[in-house]
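Quick start: read one record
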Amino acid sequence: MQLKTKIKTICVCAMMTLASFPSHAQDLLARQAPVDKRMKAVDTLSLRRLIVKENMENPSADLYDGWDNKYAHRTTSLPENYRIDLRGFCMPTPSRVVTSNFGYRARWGRQHKGLDIKVYIGDTIRAAFSGKVRIVRYEAGGYGKYVVIRHNNGLETIYGHLSKQLVAENEEVRAGEPIGLGGNTGRSTGSHLHFETRLCGVALNPALMFDFRNQDVTGDYYVFHRSSYESESEAATRERGMANNGSYTADQVRGGSYAGNASSEGSSQVEKLYHKVAAGETLASIARRRNVTVEQICRLNHLSPSAKVRPGMILRYS
């Protein structure tokens, strides 16, 4: 009974307060109420559209809780099924030579979490898909100089044993952009690219998605199923794994035919060389440093001689 009395008293006071407002103020409140309601609806709709747009542009957002530049990989909850979009890819290297498969290494008594692809020191390594660089770091007892990129299709790719990194953490990259140079750093017994593909931090066999011998992906999509992954991975290794037995040519490593005739080191294609623009540099200063002409840099990068370059740009000069 007391509660009802209190509620009644509050209502009466509220009505008296409202009645004490000038009539024009009451009219303003009355007009504003539906406006506020409509604005709230618009804000909600805009937010929903923004979320939908963000998820469309970055479908991996629902797989990862956050963004961290401190760890190479950390296992999180892996979905039962997940479709990975492989369109818009670029092979990270033109090399067709796989020197070590994904899987258990009896010699070392441990799992090998990626593919080793033969490259020479200084060979250009490219981003496999568009995405954002999460890690640029050095690990003496493992990856050496390495780069980790998170992609919109849900994957993270790791590029290990580089001689040089050409990107910075939190930098946006497009598929095919140079991200490093081949090397022999870290725990490595010869120059090669250690290439990993991870989903939610879990290493998946790159041979399920990448066919290095044919320089192509295995399809427009790869659909991951936890129930059948192991058997699919073994089949992919048999079909697309190591088959050179240590015998390969420079052409096979630097872009020639996998089944081509043996050739000397000097007969391989001319290597494409790149320069990362530093603060204060110009086309003229870069040309002098690299011992080439401004015209050559402009031709290779589709620039005009008067073009301005900005720090972080990657320019091909040979």
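The radius of gyration is 28 Å.
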